[in-house]
Amino acid sequence: MSWKPKIVAFFCKWCAGSAADLAGVSRLQYPSNIIPIIVPCTGRISARNIIEAFMNGADGVLIGGCHTPNDCHYLAGNFKAFKRVYLLKKLLKQVGIEPERLRIEWISATEAKKLVQVTNEFVKEIKKLGPLHRGE
Amino acid sequence: MSNELYRKIVEISGRNPYLCYQCGTCTAVCPVSVFMDVKPHQIIRYIQLKRIDLEKLKSIWTCLACMACVDRCPRHVDPGIIFEAVRNLVLRRGEDAVDYFKLKDLDKVPTMALIALSRKMTG
Amino acid sequence: MEESRIGVFICHCGRNIAGTVDIKKVVEEVKKLPGVVYVKDYIYMCSDPGQKLITEAIKREKLNGVVVAACTPSLHYETFARAVEAGGLNRFRYEMATIREHSSWVHFHDKEGATEKAIRIIAGAVAKVSQNKPLEPIRGKVTKKVLVIGGGIAGMTAALDLANAGIPVILVEKSPTIGGKMAMLAETFPTLDCAQCILTPKMAEVARHPNIKLYTLSEVIDIEGFVGNYRVRILKHPRMVDPDKCTVCSFCERVCPVKVPNEFDRGLSMRKAIYIPFPQAVPSAYAIDTEHCTKCGLCVKVCPVKAINLDEKEEIIEEEVGAIIVATGYDLYPGERLKEYGYGKYKNVIDSLQFERLLSTSGPTGGQIVRLSDGKPVKDIVFIQCAGSRDENHLPYCSKICCMYTAKHALLFKEQVPDGNVYIFYIDIRAAGKGYEEFIKRVQEEFHVNYIRGRVSKIYEDEDGKLVVIGTDTLTGEELTIKADLVVLALGMIPTLDRDLAAKLKVPQDEYGFAQEVHPKLRPVEVATTGVFVAGAVQGPKDISETVTQASAAASKALQMLLYGEITREPVIAEVDRDRCNGCRICVSICPYDAISMVDGKAKVNELVCEGCGACEAACPVDAIKLRNYTDQQLHTVIKAVLSR
Amino acid sequence: MKLLYYPGCTVKRNAIEYEKSSLAVLEKIGVNALELDKWYCCGALYSLAIDDLMKHLGAVRTLIYAQKKSREENTRDLLTICPMCFNVLKRVNKMLREEPEKLETISSFMDEEEPYKFNINVVHIIEVLNKKIDELKKNIIRNTGDTGVSVYYGCTVLRPKEIGIDNPEDPSIIENLLRKLGVKVVDNPYKSMCCGAYHILDKPELVYNNSKTIVEEAYKRGAKVIVTICPLCLYNLRKTIETFDKKVDVKIIYLTELLAYMLGLDHVLDKELIDFFNTVFIHDTKINNSMRREA
Q: Whole domain around residue D91: which residue ranges?
């Protein structure tokens, strides 16, 4: 059996989360490896949440939020998430996890196609990187 | 054919002719538009329609790239830059737009004129 | 915490879910999840019998948590929440697992993967609900009073609507009179009503309304509090003339030695340092321009009613209000930035509001259209539309009203100068509105106005003092030179919303500075901060009728909130574990709503202000602040649950 | 004040008087212009095609050479007097800064040169004169009385606006400078309209048409002198006057020639030109003396 990566997707409920709903309504198809966890805002996602995901078996973490600058329902949660991801990527590199395993994207509620495209790309990328070795 | 020309124009200029709403600012500010049979905004229109007949768009050679239209274009279509792309299309086929034997007062005119003209008309 | 007794209800959604997801397998796997005591699948869970399944199971199985695995919560969250409540369970002890939109519909070529994913999604929901706390909606009191900022036609309309409904209104206006830009206009399109004639009765009504408290020469300097309970501080600049005593006898004005350009005439006339902007001003009283007054005291001496006090100081007033309406209006784009048109360089190049003043019978020329350079009559006039609008170098947007007012200008000019020549340079004529197209048609048909589809490249003055307008007619492709006596620029609209004030009100601004509404179609007068509403051109370019419509809408939204008497809010907000909080204030700085304050060295969340984004929890270094039902602990259980197996 | 100086072809061949007067004026006001001992053709016209990087090579090489010099001489400003050179060098410099990946491609065509580190700042003599206005004022010994002087900018120091030294629609930097020096300036609405430039070679009638408007507008408003900062503009305007049926009494000169005259730097001016200046500018010695006293 070929290896299937596990990917956690934190989607904000206003933009990327709605896009995921729309992808469903439009019957767009994408790989089933991505498991969505819906949060109120990408600004809610802490560095620890992301690390927990990697620690618990995720091979990749995707964050989907609202477009900058003005789309965030909570004014600037997307900027906060962006900054955290930016810093966390540096940290991941230091501890030997490829920073490409973490990705943040702005996907508006109408951009179901973008969600699918990003998902496809990301799954491909993670497949290329292979399973995340967690010191077993 | 026209589609291919259109694609090249966009590629060389980096501008989007579809943004043009035909306001005519380029023609109004062009210092040499009176010497053009097809006016700057009309050239952009032909390109927008993908009806690109290089023979018909000859007035691009009258354009001096003075940048007046580029500075004022309200949609950043920047006709002056698109014209350069059209000129390049012709030049890259190896066709020159100047006959050096017909130039006047070559000995008296400042050198910069000859260099500039060569740059525009022979690539 | 009591032991979890979670029931999971799996919907087939006909074949929508069951056609792809192996329901039998899901049921089996879900049964194994920790805390799950009951699993039931059904063909249509949202149907009456389906809902009954949930209600009855809660009672029968003594469930303390429910997961409905079906479609997206935006569709049926409320449906199942009611079923859960009917079973006697708090709705926050229920979650939906979206296995249709997020699994069966998007993976129907991968039945195995879809089934697997559905199980993971349900596992996540089960993990979350097992730690969800039951919550009750938060209720708060409302102060039945509204602050309206801006006394133009938008602010006045909103204030009157509210006042007539019995709500007290504080109306704050920064200039000495209300009336706004509309007071400067001559006639208004498309009906050609005289602006003053329809405006001044409204101004008088505002002035005498018992429910409206008017503060002119005032500005809002500080806003504290939250929806329903705002405390505002208003800075009242000294008027130095007691409006109750002033009889507008004008003695003071006659003796005042200081002359400055009159802003009401947009600099086309001069006024004194003691002045009344226009005769019908409200309040009907003089005011002293403190910036220019030399305090010579001549006016004090001549005032027959002793209304002038040059020692009057500014004053700070505090008011409590429940809602705020922002109606600060617009300004014209600075014409000086359009160097090509010579605005500011040549006297006879003017803007559209200056032309309104020339047309107005109360204006600097008594309604006579003349050349400003020498007072000679105007025979040839050029109007330039989109002066600054629809231009990436200036204002990328359409200012919306210029097409109409330019047509009106042309008509009013032709009425005064029937043998005059009018040229209008335009790009497109936008006349969408009741009676608008007909108006344009009339201007063309009856008044023979020359509409020129094209642009102007430059304008300069020749030796005879005529303006040389050089442009192009795009339809003929020909160059055009017109000698004109007057050129009127239809300058675009820019919002007047001070960044400081916007920040204090937490009104988001779009890239141009206009107030950003929550939704352009469905919630056009609300902004992200609950309890703050916008009206008029501050939200986007608008004509008078639209402004009035929006002002009434804003008033009715405010009224809705105030008349209900209390506000209810979602309880999914942040809360602080005071034992853990070390008072670092990171959450205070990160909160976009200023909902967190420090009380006794520890963070405290204002329940009525918090919108529940959770940014504070993500930032808290000691895990002291939590977003209810989205705590880190919960998220980590969810992460583990969706990744296990 | 020390500057690196890039002359360009025309200044060395057809506009020697422009260079002479410019350098003399700069020297007088304490600006040391160090001519690069190695420079390349700027290309005269900036290529607008985004894929045509080769055409920027000469300009890039010049910038790199200036960068070397800038370390020795401890100045980063590269002075130009020819507006076309200014235009090309400044635009290439800006393009490299904004799109460093293009510099990479261009660099692959060059083996010898050191990498360009965006160290150079391209300036035009007008900007330098404007900065040194007080020095100019101090050194003036002749004024120009009531004689109208009109300015013709041409386009290349103004456009595109991102690199221009003033607003291209209504520039005033040179007029303001002259006004501060007591010159009676005559406005010309066509002061930034293109004269026709290189079309003098292949479409002279176009140049005559545009230049005629420029000259006539200035003349109508009472200008006796039109100052320019471009050898080609100067040539075109002069050539156009020759085609007039009716002689117009207006002379086209370089701005720096006028300044040299006002500063008394007669050794860099032709005798003929000095004679012309002496006749056209009727001096008021009183003002002259008082200005000298002030200085």
A: 2-127
> Taking CA atoms, what residue in D is nearest to C340?
D169
ipTM attached to this prediction: 0.82
The chains in contact with chain D, meaning 3 or more Cβ pairs closer than 8 Å, are B, C
Q: How far apart are CA B95 and CA C316, in angstroms?
A: 77
> Angle D253-D198-D92 (CA atoms, 0-180°, nearest 5)?
95
Q: List the single residue in C101, C572, C643 with the smallest CB-CB distance to A58.
A: C643
Does the structure show a pLDDT above 80 at D294?
no
Asked, as a colleague might, if the bond just before A40 is cis with ω within 30 of 0, I would say no
In a domain, D134, yes or no: no
According to CATH, the topology of domain C146-237+315-329+500-566 is FAD/NAD(P)-binding domain (3.50.50)
- Collect all residues of chain B within an 8 Å Cβ-Cβ radius of residue D171: none
A76-118: per-residue pLDDT in tens? 899 999 999 999 999 999 988 999 999 999 999 889 999 999 9
CB contact under 8 A, D189 and C339: no
D161 and D123 within one domain:
no
Tell me the chain B residues in contact with residue C394 when contact means C-beta distances shorter than 8 Å.
74
Domains of chain B: 3-122 (1.10.1060)
Q: Considering only residues 14 to 53 of chain B, which have any Cβ-Cβ distance to chain D shorter than 8 Å?
A: 14, 31-32, 34-35
Q: Do B74 and C391 touch (CB under 8 A)?
A: yes
Q: Topology of domain C331-494, per CATH? A: FAD/NAD(P)-binding domain (3.50.50)
Q: Hey, are the CB atoms on B76 and C392 less than 8 Å from each other?
A: yes
Tell me, what amino acid is at C195? A
In chain D, which residues have their Cβ closer than 8 Å to the Cβ of C339? 167, 169-170
What's the gap in Å between the CA of C487 and the closest CA on chain B?
17
Give, as one character, the DSSP assignment of residue A94. H
Rg over alpha carbons for chain B, rounded to the nearest Å, is 15
CATH of the domain at D208: 3.40.50.1860
pLDDT at A71: 80
Q: Strand, helix or coil at C188? A: strand
Nearest CA in chain C to D221: C463
Q: Which of D97, D127, D157 corresponds to the end of one domain? A: D127
B76 touches chain D (CB under 8 A): no
Nearest Cβ partner of C479 from B25, B33, B74?
Answer: B33
Q: A7-127 — its CATH code?
A: 3.40.50.960
Residue C461 β-bridge partners: C467
Q: Of the candidates C476, C487, C403, which has an alpha carbon nearest to the alpha carbon of residue C439?
A: C403
Tell me the mean pLDDT in the region D276-293: 66
In terms of Cα–Cα distance, which of C584, C336, C107, B17 is closest to A24? Answer: C107
Q: Are residues D273 and D144 in the same domain?
A: yes
Within 13 A of C292's CA, how many CA atoms are on the CB side?
16
Please tell me the predicted confidence (pLDDT) of residue C511: 87
The three-class DSSP label of residue D269 is: coil
Look-up of token digits 């409590």: C320
Closest CA to C616 of A80, A15, A67: A80
Chain C interface disruption, residue of D159, D167, D169, most C CBs within 10 A: D169
Give one word for C194, left, alpha or beta, with left for phi > 0 and alpha for psi -120 to 50.
beta
Query: Is the Cβ pair D232, B103 closer than 8 Å?
Result: no
**8 Å CB contact between B80 and D45:** no
Going along A24-132, which residue ranges are E strands? 34-39, 60-65, 102-106
Nearest C-alpha neighbor of D193 from the set D166, D206, D211: D211
Which residues touch D218 (CB under 8 Å, ≥6 apart)? D150, D152, D186, D188, D226, D250
Query: Which segments of chain C have a pLDDT < 70?
Result: 1
